[in-house]
Amino acid sequence: MQQKILTMLDLQAAMNARVNPQWRAANLPWYRAIWTECAEMLDHYGWKWWKHQKPDMEQVHLELVDIWHFALSDLLMRGDSPEQIAAQTQVALAEPTECDDFRESIEQMAQRSIASRSADIRLFAAMMQLAELDFDKLFKTYVGKNVLNFFRQDHGYKEGSYIKVWQGREDNEHLAELLATIDADSPSFSEDLYQRLADVYPG
């Protein structure tokens, strides 16, 4: 687990640098992105008592992964080495905050992120547990989205020349298919995934 956390930290730092080379000095409000994603996740899970709603757990999991992007960024800003961060994060993920209601855990994450202006990893672990998102799926989905974001940038996404739909399906659907065929435990997981995307991309 610690090696996978290190991998995600490296990928997040690289993506942040791609968006803004001076991201470490920019004092970006990662906590604000976290509580905003919490609100979006609550909508996907459902909270309106005056109408029938069925939780969309696939979207809930994707929102958790989005929150994880910002949580990793926040952790990287705390001054510790990546190795220290990975070790501390592994411990926190193994000790989830006690909570038995998913909606309340979402609200607690939003409240704490605003109050502390940082990410609460133990509470994030509780949200994962309540949403039945295990660490391996978090890792695989996180790396997949990160690699796809890089792939898009490398193939003209910013310029508008990137082809998002091919063979009648969006790129994220191709991504999900490829993720099922690649060993997430391989040290070269992200590189292998990028190459597989390049192999099937029509551009």
Automatic annotation (TrEMBL):
<protein>
    <submittedName>
        <fullName>dUTPase</fullName>
    </submittedName>
</protein>
<dbReference type="Pfam" id="PF08761">
    <property type="entry name" value="dUTPase_2"/>
</dbReference>
<dbReference type="InterPro" id="IPR014871">
    <property type="entry name" value="dUTPase/dCTP_pyrophosphatase"/>
</dbReference>
